Structure to design on (147 residues):
């Protein structure tokens, strides 16, 4: 015999719809909580800022009062002297530092032909034919000369 479901289908549908509603509303609920926390923290920051500004105004007023009292007390005791005028500060113009000129290269002693054309000082010997004949480049190496 098959087992019968003792729960009415309308009840299971109501529970399922409630669960779907909770799952569907949770992102918006979470975002609403985030916005409330953000607005509360910004409001507290503004209150702290206003309180700090009031405190600084009180300090400023007290400082001004003390300075005025000192000025009035000093003015009654001594003759007022003219203010000291300082000459304007002139900024000197910027100058580019002079560097010594780079050293000029000195010509190395060459064993080439007259006219200053250097010779091939490599370690290889090339022999080949050209249109006019054959050429041979000779040069010296550290161990001697090669042909």
């Amino acid at each position: 015999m098959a087992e019968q479901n003792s729960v009415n289908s309308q009840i299971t549908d109501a529970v399922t719809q409630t669960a779907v509603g909770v799952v569907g509303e949770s992102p918006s609920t979470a975002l609403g909580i985030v916005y409330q926390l953000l607005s509360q923290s910004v409001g507290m920051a503004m209150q702290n800022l206003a309180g700090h500004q009031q405190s600084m105004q009180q300090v400023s007023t007290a400082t001004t009062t003390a300075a005025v009292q000192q000025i009035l007390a000093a003015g009654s005791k001594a003759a007022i002297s003219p203010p000291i005028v300082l000459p304007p500060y002139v900024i000197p113009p910027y100058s580019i530092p002079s560097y010594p000129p780079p050293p000029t290269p000195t010509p190395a002693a060459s064993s080439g032909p007259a006219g200053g054309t250097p010779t091939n000082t490599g370690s290889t010997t090339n022999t080949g034919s050209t249109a006019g004949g054959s050429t041979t480049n000779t040069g010296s190496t550290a161990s001697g000369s090669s042909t």
